[in-house]
Amino acid sequence: MASKIALVTGASRGLGKDSALQLAKKGFDIILTYQTKKEAADEVVKEIETLGQKAFALPLDISTTAGFDQFVTEVKDVLDTQFDSAKLDALVNNAGIGINESFETTTEEILDAMTNIHFKGPYFLTQKLLPLLNDGSSIVNTSSGLARFSMPGYSAYGAMKAAIDSLSRYQALEFGARKIRVNSIAPGAIETDFGGGVVRDISDLNKHLASETALGRVGLPDDIGSVVAFLCSEDSKWINGQRVEVSGGFKL
Ligand SMILES: NC(=O)c1ccc[n+]([C@@H]2O[C@H](COP(=O)([O-])OP(=O)(O)OC[C@H]3O[C@@H](n4cnc5c(N)ncnc54)[C@H](OP(=O)(O)O)[C@@H]3O)[C@@H](O)[C@H]2O)c1
Q1: Given this model, what pLDDT does residue 1 score?
Q2: Domains observed in the chain
Q3: What top-level branch of life does the organism fall under (predicted)?
Q4: Which of 30, 36, 209, 250 is the most buried (most CB within 10 A)?
Q5: CA–CA distance, 214 with 36 (Å, rounded to integer)
């Protein structure tokens, strides 16, 4: 039987990379995207191939809709020429960046960037990819713990992630007729390059975040990817329109 195919945005590193690898372990072929780090994305492709699945990396800038039509054309071409398929079975909207900017110093430019990357981009990318998703597909949108609890400096970022939680519910409602499930995953603080790698590299911050976590440490990328893969698989076939927080119990 042909493998199912997942498209994961921002999978050259961090949580997207781990999600792509865990999906491959569950038997998915992967189209992954990167923005600038092509070599890192090519390494992820190789790792997936070592796991026995097919993979292909495409460039994507989620911050502007201008390139989306071209991107969708490329996805169709890759599906046809590399995967011998017309459609996708899962979409993981993961690409994103972190910023820490107080409410008082957040400029219109910063708010626009957060809106475009974390909300408008995933919104219209999903709209454009919808015809390419098989009925019964799964969509996972990436939220954040910061949509439930608040920390100084994350008003623009956290509000966009709250918008993603809301969007997931609306999408789940409207896509139900096609049996397409939509959930959002809300990671807590994870050691990646996110926000300049602060969670991983600033020891005092890392210790503080760990002290607020019931399980006593911050998260690692492999705490997340397996949950994304679960949400894309039939194992979660009755989970729909939910926000799944994956934080080890942060600020309970
Ligand atoms: N790490 C955390 O603590 C944490 C917590 C909650 C939620 N999240 C969310 O999880 C997602 C992934 O974060 P991460 O920690 O894995 O970050 P990361 O390690 O910095 O990786 C970010 C990924 O997104 C891509 N990317 C960045 N800007 C992009 C753009 N404008 N267009 C397209 N792709 C872009 C990067 O591509 P290149 O490699 O090519 O630059 C990279 O693949 C984000 O949505 C983030 O908000 C993270």
Answers
A1: 80
A2: 5-186+221-246 (3.40.50.720)
A3: Bacteria
A4: 30
A5: 36
